[in-house]
Specification:
Helix content is about 15%, strand content about 20%. It is α+β, with helices and mostly antiparallel strands and about 375 residues long.
Length: about 375
């Protein structure tokens, strides 16, 4: 399972687990030492820049562009699942999720404003030693970075460069403009890299704040009594979500009547009751099971296509919860950007096929919004 522990410990825990595997919940926590979020530690994390698994063959800029508005997608999170698979070619395995920061692009279903990429590696590979470093050795751990040019702004593959210094690299003109005006490059351009801080140092942050994903089995949480008092905190959370996203303009007191009127509202009620035992969860990992939907726009037969690389069916792997949006705020100069989603369900190849060994294979993200 994806866990906040060493890769070796993750494999040991998975080997000791008995079927059926429990639902694993993920919670966003601040990491005291950001170095533990680097690629060498195989993190599961939210925001910041991607900690790429394979250090070359990164998704190309055109793959990380919103299909609706043509703007670059933002890195949302990565989920490490090393230990879930018996095959050595899946010894290390991470799924990376990207989202569009234009709320108008957040349409229901399989839309190009949410994308996921799967990557996996055998234990013996060209990038990492067989035994990863421990957290206590972080001072001496290698800072492994991509072996190809990456964007100073977002950390994704870069095919453009600054026309003046020819050193800073970018994935698109938008990110180059931001880095020049806000990210510090205007002051650094032309300086030797030894004297300049890569990417503008801590002068500014592009994208989303960074968190580590800590995990617990859902079974560790006690069931909540299905009484009005016991559910009140989750009711209020859902009310805030509905109001903030202008899903209903009636007064708060009308919400309880609203949830009884349509099938979509029944899904919302079921969702609310299910997450009440751990309302801060931002991820539910339950590969091969059914997602916990929040609305009624769920996939019909054929709407989640098979893996184009091997032909195997795709299965549900994990979902990203709307509670995550409470934590994700853009910096002041990016206030025009907004995230807006209900449940993001990630479907991946049921074989986790070898076509993603050492490369990034696109999978399917299904957006299930509150109606």
């Amino acid at each position: 399972f994806f866990v906040h522990m060493s890769a070796a410990a993750a494999h040991a825990a998975a080997a000791a687990a008995e079927d059926p595997k429990p639902t694993v919940l993920g919670f966003a926590e601040l990491e005291d030492d950001p170095r533990l979020l680097r690629s060498a530690y195989f993190p599961s994390k939210i925001g910041g820049k991607p900690a790429w698994l394979a250090l070359k063959g990164l998704p190309r800029p055109e793959q990380l562009t919103c299909s609706r508005c043509s703007l670059p997608l933002h890195f949302l999170m990565q989920v490490y699942s090393g230990g879930e698979w018996e095959r050595d070619n899946c010894y290390h395995r991470t799924v990376f999720v990207f989202v569009c920061a234009s709320g108008t692009c957040s349409q229901p279903g399989r839309v190009g404003s949410f994308k996921a990429f799967r990557c996996q590696l055998p234990k013996l590979n060209e990038f990492y030693p067989p035994d990863p470093p421990s957290a206590k050795d972080v001072d001496s751990a290698p800072d492994l970075r991509p072996l190809e040019a990456t964007c100073e702004t977002c950390g994704c593959a870069a095919e453009k460069r600054c026309s003046q210094c020819h050193q800073a690299r970018y994935c698109c003109r938008d990110h180059q403009t931001w880095h020049w005006k806000t990210g510090g490059h205007k002051l650094e351009c032309g300086k030797e890299r030894a004297d300049a801080t890569v990417g503008g140092a801590a002068a500014a942050r592009y994208g989303l704040p960074e968190y580590i994903l800590d995990t617990e089995d859902e079974s560790e949480f006690e069931d909540v009594d299905d009484s009005e008092q016991a559910n009140q905190s989750q009711v209020e959370e859902m009310k805030r979500y509905v109001k903030e996203h202008k899903l209903d303009t009636r007064a708060d007191a009308a919400l309880d009547d609203l949830v009884k009127e349509t099938q979509a509202d029944k899904a919302l009620l079921k969702f609310r009751e299910k997450v009440a035992k751990a309302p801060d969860q931002v991820i539910r990992y339950m590969r091969g099971e059914a997602p916990l939907w929040i609305g009624d726009r769920t996939p019909l037969d054929g709407e989640v296509p098979p893996c184009p690389l091997c032909g195997a069916a795709r299965v549900f792997e994990f979902q990203i919860m709307p509670q995550l949006m409470n934590l994700l705020k853009f910096e002041e100069d990016l206030k025009s950007k907004t995230l807006d989603f209900g449940v993001l369900a990630v479907y991946s190849c049921s074989n986790s096929c070898d076509a993603a060994v050492g490369r990034y294979a696109e999978e399917v993200v299904w957006h299930n919004p509150v109606n």
